[in-house]
């Protein structure tokens, strides 16, 4: 296609039809369109083309993680079959509520025996998180084979793909399906709420904004968590006879 054809109003439809040819795998389709949009954005920014017909396109793939929360049974079964490397990653995620990428980077120097320090890649926010006793015990008992806290079985830093592969294998051995490592981030919020932590306390602990914590608790998790309902009724029973 000549560059001049990109100015034709019909071209956007042509590119959408091209994207839709991958519709059987929505993520692949969205990735293809996004990659092409980036290339055209580069060209537009440098004056090679006047318009980007692939910008602001809707996605084919959408994920609804509303009910995707790691419960204690799922956590326990993965811990029972996972390697020590995966166990440490799981416990880190549960006690910090951080993203996979942010947990794969911190060096041992970021842990002082009581707190863990890291910088969130998405927000740039610097986090100082108290290490809960289970996490602290695990960290203190872990052999330091690398400058980084999380490493693979060879003592080398994880790549994102390498970690996802090992994590998926551990979940498969445990028979856990439909849950991702990223779901542990929301689960950390729920666990803190179940422990009666306030919204500001949760936000300070995980690095979420107050608005995001409220959204998670209100719309995605807590309204569907029977443990919260049971805890609320127990509190009510203690305060009233009616």
Please give the number of β-strands.
2
Fraction of residues in β-strands: under 5%
The helicity comes to 40-55%
Note the run of SSEs as H and E.
HHHHHEEHHHHHH
Could you walk me through the main structural features you see in this protein, from its secondary elements to its overall organization?
The protein is mainly α and 242 residues long. The chain has helices spanning 11-20, 26-45, 72-81, 84-96, 100-104, 133-140, 160-174, 183-194, 199-206, 210-220, 226-239; strands spanning 115-119, 126-130. The chain has a two-stranded antiparallel sheet.
Keywords summarizing the entry:
single chain, mainly alpha, two-stranded antiparallel ribbon, 52% helix
